[in-house]
Write a structure and sequence with these properties.
elongated; 4 strands; mainly alpha; two-stranded antiparallel sheet; repeat; about 425 residues; ARM-type_fold
Length: about 425
């Protein structure tokens, strides 16, 4: 039987088109197999180490023993340097074997001598320090012209970056230069971003020195000009809660009925109510109550009314709503915007106020038919059904509604709501 090395030699001869007479010569000149110098894969290392070498006569002789430690180290180094270039999320930065790794043994003799990983110092810390120094130098170069610089794109970026450093002296310098010309800077398309950053980063005591410069006209213009100017006022109340802000609250409350009907103004009022002190909140709500029915039917004002009702006590809601909405329940329920408010109010009314609502909307056949056939009123009617808490209340509503279900354009939805409430009542009774 031929050995593996001889068989490989005989198979290689015809491929080289060598005459049969030169077989012996070629066999004698065949070079022995050698271990590759450059590792390409773990399979090549294994087969190369385990393959016998051929002598000059073609006989297989055992290869001298090679240290497995050296090969293992070479293989490990090969795998450490391998990169998965097909991964689109892989980093293109060179990989460091010493970053967060254990000490690596570099000796090939296996004596256990290991060297500690070298510490790699990140230059980002030094760069951040240099960046801060550069900002300070650029800031000092424009001191005295900060309001004019804030109204430019480059100056806006510079001043916002400086304010983020929380440097007390530089922040106070910005406040001192902005104070006399605050309206011009705050209403500018670039300056408003600087004023907002200033409001967010300064302490409440320093903010109190800016409050006198928020005149009623400036507050009104900030509230309605753009989303960016509106966020200046929003940041004032989100960042600071103090009695010193009462003049700004009074300026907003003075024009609250007009602001509530504007896109940005309604958001200003909502955020002010949500973030002010209780007595400031009540002051704004008291100015909005007389215009509650009109705001309820406005495309923006209805959101303000919902916010007002959410921050009022249920007893106060009952008194205010019954006084303002009495005789207008059906008209409000059939309005696209007011129906959202009525749905919320229906779920909190109790006692005499709820009975008055049912008498006006459900017990009157004309009003009931209008609600059942209206694309918005039917949702208010479903809310009335769903909020029923007593058996007598539900029986009264059901007896009035069921005869009109076959002629209602939304009868299927209303009937489904009746069945759901009945099933829920049955489950509770069991």
């Amino acid at each position: 039987m031929l050995r593996r090395g001889e068989r490989l030699t005989m198979m290689a001869v015809p491929a080289l088109n060598v005459p049969q007479s030169n077989v012996a010569t070629q066999s004698a000149c065949t070079h022995p197999f050698q271990v590759p110098q450059q590792c390409r894969s773990a399979w090549e290392l294994t087969t190369s180490d385990s393959s016998p070498s051929l002598s000059a006569q073609g006989a297989a002789t055992p290869k001298p023993a090679v240290s497995n430690t050296t090969n293992a180290a070479a293989s490990a180094g090969c795998y450490r340097s391998h990169r998965y270039t097909h991964n689109p999320y892989a980093s293109t930065a060179p990989r460091s074997d010493n970053d967060g790794a254990d000490p690596v043994c570099v000796s090939g003799s296996g004596d256990g001598n290991c060297e500690a990983p070298r510490h790699v110092y990140n230059s980002a810390v030094l760069d951040s320090g240099n960046l801060s120094n550069g900002l300070v130098e650029r800031f000092r170069a424009i001191v005295g012209e900060l309001p004019r610089a804030a109204c430019t794109s480059a100056g806006r970026n510079l001043l916002v970056s400086v304010l983020r450093l929380h440097h007390v002296e530089m922040t106070r310098t910005v406040v001192d230069e902005f104070r006399p010309v605050l309206p011009a800077v705050a209403l500018d398309s670039n300056g408003c971003h600087v004023v907002r950053a200033l409001v967010e980063f300064i302490p409440t005591g320093l903010m109190a020195t800016l409050v006198p410069h928020f005149t009623p006209s400036l507050v009104r213009d900030l509230a309605v000009s753009s989303p960016y100017t509106r966020r200046v006022l929003q940041s004032v109340f989100e960042r600071h809660k103090s009695d010193a802000l009462t003049p700004i609250v009074e300026a907003i409350a003075q024009d609250s009925q007009l602001l509530a009907q504007r896109q940005q103004g309604c958001i200003t009022i909502i955020r002010t109510i949500e973030n002010t002190l209780p007595h400031q909140q009540r002051f704004i709500i008291s100015r909005l109550l007389p215009a509650l029915p009109a705001l309820t039917m406005n495309c923006y004002g209805n959101y303000v009314v919902q916010c007002v009702l959410h921050h009022m006590d249920p007893e106060a809601v009952t008194v205010v709503v019954c006084h303002a909405f009495a005789g207008h329940w059906v008209a409000l329920s059939c309005n696209k915007f007011a129906s959202n408010v009525v749905e919320k109010v229906v779920r909190v009314l109790e006692g005499p106020a709820r009975r008055a609502l049912i008498a006006e909307t459900v017990c009157d056949p004309v009003n009931l038919r209008r609600l059942m056939n209206d694309c918005f009123g039917n949702f208010v009617l479903q809310a009335i059904i769903d909020s029923s808490t007593s058996e007598v209340d539900f029986r009264t509503i059901s007896q009035c509604i069921r005869p009109l279900l076959p002629t209602s354009s939304h009868g299927r939805r209303i009937e489904s709501k009746l069945q759901c409430v009945m099933a829920r009542a049955g489950a509770v009774g069991e």
